[in-house]
Amino acid sequence: DIQMTQSPSSLSASVGDRVTITCQASQDISNYLNWYQLKPGKAPKLLIYDASNLEAGVPSRFSGSGSGTDFTFTISSLQPEDIATYYCQHYDNLPYAFGQGTKLEIK
Amino acid sequence: QVQLKESGPGLVKPSQTLSLTCTVSGGSMSSVAFFWTWIRQHPGKGLEWLGYIYDSGTTYYNPSLKSRVTMSIDTSKNQLSLKLTSVTAADTAVYYCARGKIRWEVWGQGTLVTVSS
């Protein structure tokens, strides 16, 4: 099975900061990677698909990049509503799997 | 707009069977074929992909669940179901249903299931 290593596990940043989260796959997964946002009590939200494509309706401050084994998720200017936990997820082969998550807090 | 809602007992005793339903609203499941996925999140931990079911009934389950999991679909009722047998405390989690196979644009809000005597 492919393992996804996400870092950091938690992150504290100020409003307006640029925030970066990384995700590393245990083997080459091409661009078969998605990013999600989870907030307590709310339905999870798909933000980025196929490593770098912005899901419809998602603000442009969110972006993703990478291919192969190394991926990056970026919030260009952190907003208060971005407080959440973020997960990467591969779909290269079954079983699909997620990274451990990054909990983002406002400083 | 399609919405999903999970429902079922919030408390299940160890060794019993966990049974959940996901009701789809805002669209007919029988009009367009989709994959439907179940995912769970253990308290304070990450997400675990449980498996998917297609409208035809084709399934694929996470091998980590071995033979304990069964997913089914009833397009006439706009419902999915998840059954997990022989539960233990390790199955305590928020369970989500979502639409899609490789990525999930629509999710339910999740339902917490606690396994405890």
Briefly say what this structure is.
Chain A has 107 residues and is mainly beta.
Commentary on this structure:
The complex is a heterodimer of chains A (107) and B (117). In chain A, 0% of the residues lie in helices and 50% in strands. Chain A has 107 residues and is mostly beta strands. In chain A, strands 2, 4, 5, 6, 9, 10 and 11 form a seven-stranded mixed β-sheet that branches. Chain A has a four-stranded antiparallel β-sheet with strand order 1-3-8-7, with no helix packed on it. The radius of gyration of chain A is 13 Å and the shape is globular. Helices cover 0% and strands 50% of the residues of chain B. Chain B contains no helices and eleven strands. Chain B has strands at residues 3-7, 11-12, 18-25, 35-41, 47-54, 59-61, 69-74, 79-84, 93-99, 106-107, 111-115. In chain B, strand 4 and strand 5 form a beta hairpin. Chain B is globular and about 40 Å long. Chain A binds chain B through residues 32, 34, 36, 38, 41-46, 49, 55, 87, 89, 91, 94-101, and chain B through 4, 41, 46-49, 51, 60, 62-64, 96, 98, 101-110.
Q: What proportion of the residues of chain B is helical, as a percent range? A: under 10%
Instruction: Specify the overall morphology of chain B.
Output: globular
Question: Count of DSSP helices of chain A?
Answer: 0
> Which value, in Å, is the CA radius of gyration of chain B?
13 Å
Helix/sheet category of chain A: mainly beta
Biggest protein-protein contact in the assembly: A-B, 23 and 23 residues
> Total number of β-strand segments of chain A?
11
Seen as an oligomer or otherwise, the chain set is heterodimer
* CA-based shape of chain A: globular
